[in-house]
Design a protein that fits this description.
Radius of gyration: 23 Å
Number of helices: 13
Strand content: 15-25%
Distance between the termini: 49 Å
Structural class: alpha/beta
Helix content: 40-55%
């Protein structure tokens, strides 16, 4: 891969986009949405090749679920794209403005970052999400997907580029897809070392991918974390609600980063709640229980230290019993990935303590962690869930791909 040639082209494209108004960018994105709809058959056919190869290689069905595209999911991709079109263009927004004592006018305005790279695994919907957010915010984007979704990504990018080429002032060169070869990650190394050529890199995938990017990148990185999410069932919990939330947060899509991986239960309700939970799961989830929890469960297996803080991404979950909400908070903060945590409780004092003390990007009260998502937050698409504390945190929408600069107007002032 000639990283300089690719990023030079992307830089030129980003400069073109930086001069476009919201109307032109929205027309281009609308054309892409229409093209995705018209070409869904070819996209699904390409995706089937990826799915067949993944099954032949022994990939688990929960991970294959992340790879799968069908009519319903393409409908969702198009809907997310149209939500992005409907959002306010952040470029040019005046964040602050004032006049200095010597008469100069200072304005702080939003501008695009420039050239963005995203390194991601499996999910081909990310191809459209990342592109749409980058394009709307005036950025060009380099996509490095995984080999498991490569055929899907190639077809999606083809559709996007053809749509952009066919619309007034469209910038098809604003999106590039890295050619992925099995077991060859030299292109990733080039991206991570493209100082001065790539303005920011976002990893989106499993723990191994994210750690590799954070550890080895010489370009700026916005870290998206793996999802070791917890549900805490307080002594003042509505236990029926707790069962329903646990079922949704664990079973609806266990392979995603906002699914829970551990259920923490107050000792005062453990004897009543844990059999209810086991009945609700009805054998669909393998439970790894600590020595206090296992006595209240029929089919659980003893948890090991490795289970606590583990991201299963499957129909498995660990269970821990604690003596107090303070112990629950301490345990969660020492085992989570700063992603999403939830408490089920009717005590306002306890819920506010939980929200104040838990260190995570999203902290829920009486709701499923599955809502940590750009679409659910009203952002349309998302770039991922940031678990860091600088620049961005939580679901990342359009504004994350902007920075600010100061525009100063004077009349000959000197210092």
């Amino acid at each position: 891969m000639d990283i300089k040639k690719i990023t030079d082209s992307l830089r030129t494209a980003s400069q073109k986009l930086a001069l476009q108004n919201a109307s032109l960018k929205n027309k281009a994105l609308a054309a892409v949405a229409d093209a995705l709809d018209k070409n869904r058959a070819s996209i699904i056919a390409a995706n089937k090749l990826d799915i067949d190869a993944a099954r032949a290689n022994g990939m688990s069905e929960s991970i294959i679920d992340r790879l799968l595209l069908n009519d319903k999911r393409i409908d969702g991709i198009i809907e997310s794209l149209r939500l992005v079109i409907g959002q306010t263009d952040p470029v040019g927004e005046e964040v602050a403005g004032w006049k200095t004592p010597n008469g100069m006018t200072i304005r702080q305005v939003r501008v695009p970052l420039g050239v963005v790279a995203i390194i991601y695994e499996n999910r081909p919907n990310v191809t459209v999400d990342a592109f749409s957010l980058a394009y709307k915010s005036g950025n060009a984007i380099l996509l490095r997907g995984s080999s498991s979704s490569y055929k899907s990504n190639v077809e999606i990018v083809r559709v996007i580029r053809e749509a952009l080429a066919g619309v007034e002032a469209g910038v098809p060169e604003a999106i590039e897809l890295v050619e992925v070869k099995d077991h060859d990650h030299s292109d990733v190394d080039q991206i991570l070392n493209a100082v001065g050529m790539i303005d920011v890199c976002l990893p989106r995938g499993g723990k191994k991918l994210i750690e590799n990017v954070v550890r080895n990148a010489r370009v700026p990185v916005i870290e998206t974390g793996s999802g070791v999410c917890h549900l805490y069932v307080d002594e003042f919990a509505n236990l029926d609600m707790a069962c329903n939330v646990a079922e949704n947060a664990k079973i609806q899509r266990p392979s995603v980063c906002n699914a829970i991986e551990c259920i923490v239960v107050h000792k005062a309700v453990a004897e009543k709640f844990l059999p209810m939970l086991e009945a609700k799961f009805a054998g669909r989830v393998k439970l790894h229980a600590d020595e206090r929890a296992i006595g209240f469960l029929k089919d659980a297996i003893p948890a090991t230290e490795a289970d606590f803080g583990n991201e299963y991404l499957d129909y498995e979950c660990c269970v821990k019993v604690v003596d107090s909400i303070k112990e629950a908070i301490s345990y969660i903060n020492s085992h989570n990935t700063k992603h999403s945590e939830s408490i089920i409780s009717e005590s306002r004092e306890n819920t506010r303590l939980f929200q104040a003390m838990i260190d995570a990007s999203c902290v829920y009260v009486n709701a499923s962690t599955r809502f940590t998502d750009g679409g659910e937050f009203g952002f349309g698409a998302e770039l991922g869930i940031s678990t860091q504390k600088l620049h961005a945190r939580g679901p990342m929408g359009i504004k994350v791909l902007t920075t600010t600069k100061y525009l100063i107007d004077g009349e000959g002032q000197i210092r």
